[in-house]
Amino acid sequence: MAKEKSLFVCSECGGTSPKWLGKCPSCGAWNTLIEQVAGSSGPANNRFGTQYAALAGVSELATLSEIEATDVARTPTGLDELDRVLGGGIVSGGVTLIGGDPGIGKSTLLLQAVDALQRAGQNALYVTGEESGAQVSLRSRRLGLDHSQVQVLAEIQLEKIIATLDATRPAIAVIDSIQTVYSDQLTSAPGSVAQVRECAAHLTRFAKTSGTAVVLVGHVTKEGALAGPRVLEHMVDTVLYFEGDTHSSFRLVRAIKNRFGAVNEIGVFAMTERGLKGVTNPSAIFLSQHAEPVPGSVVLVTLEGTRPMLVEIQALVDNGGPSPRRLSVGLDRDRLAMLLAVLHRHAGVACMDQDVFVNAVGGVRISEPAADLAVMLAITSSLRGKPLPRGFIAFGEVGLAGEVRPAPRGQERLREAAKLGFSVAVVPKANAPRKGTKEIEGLTIHAVERIEEAMDVVRRLD
């Protein structure tokens, strides 16, 4: 009996090698090559080549200006926070990939969404490959989804799943999860790079031809990235990440990619005994309640997608040893080191022999540079031991030359702060309301151009 030929496939990028190597020749990752049986390359197995050959010459060219452009119709899921992240609701024929840590609440959220769609008159199908139908039914009862009419299919074979989808034609189908699905056309095991890529391609093709909205649940790696080939994110229309601290009851759903809406939108949920509930005022989560103002605390108005949120930045400066520590939670550590250098050079505030700790309250991660000014003011407040006045906010990017640069959509940030009762703001000069425009009621705005000016304003406010 002839020995089957094998090749080695990278689990990170999908690249192949005829022999095992410690380092992938395509992406450079270490210890990611996995042995698989090589399929025949004959014409009988060239599934895609024959399809493309048959389609060659059929399509007609069209002028871009002559193509009719209409807004895509959306169907609300019944969960306002999820609709915000999706851009208004699910799109017919759209493919969404959602990833997150095990036990974070992906299946709970999607089960609530498909039940709400079913009750709104949309035919919904939930395909479970990790649990039995009885386990899904038990979860629905725990969530209070009594008499749910959602159809459940416990299956992991791709061909059977697509046949069921083609026969029932649901409005939305959830595949939980894509790593458990396998195709008979491949010899590799479920969860391998080839299986994940092939199954996702077939499900995406079915969604586009049938109009069924497909939601794929993906596993994540230790680093928090979606497991499997990166090409999976390029094949789908929307990529969502489910984030949250296991010690907290709050969860964030973040849009990384969205062909039908804005990216970097977030939805905030609270995990309760009855499932995930949307949080309409997330700023209340990320603000600590102090009876009196404390040193080292500054409120930042950050922007997540189109939503301005208030987050408390806390700093603690303490006596350090010969090698002082620089530690940040929720903020970039390298940027913290840069801000300390700017603070010393341009504002005369030295922390060379001090330990500096910076934290964003509530477990939120802040990636935008508009947090620079708030971080520097919090560090200065802690070092001097003097709290900033009650109702104080700040935002703005700080450059290496000490200039304070504007933040995007500054007027929306200021209006959100005024709505929540804040009264004093230190902002970049370019973000201050222009002359002749309506002033923001109840908010005293101090516009600054350099970090030295911001420090002088804070000293006068003490």
TrEMBL record:
Region annotation (Lon-protease-like) maps to: 355-462
Any one GO molecular function term: ATP-dependent peptidase activity
Does the record bear Nucleotidyltransferase in its keywords?
no
Keyword DNA-binding set for record: yes
Q: Which residues participate in ATP binding?
A: 100-107
Ranges for domain RecA family profile come to 71-220
User: What Pfam families is this protein classified in?
Assistant: AAA_25 (PF13481), Lon_C (PF05362), Zn_ribbon_LapB (PF18073)
Indicate which residues form the motif RadA KNRFG motif: 257-261
List the PANTHER family hit by this protein, alphabetically.
DNA REPAIR PROTEIN RADA (PTHR32472), DNA REPAIR PROTEIN RADA-LIKE PROTEIN (PTHR32472:SF10)
**What is the protein name for this chain?**
DNA repair protein RadA
To which species is this protein native? Answer: Variovorax paradoxus
> What does the record give as the organism's lineage?
Bacteria, Pseudomonadati, Pseudomonadota, Betaproteobacteria, Burkholderiales
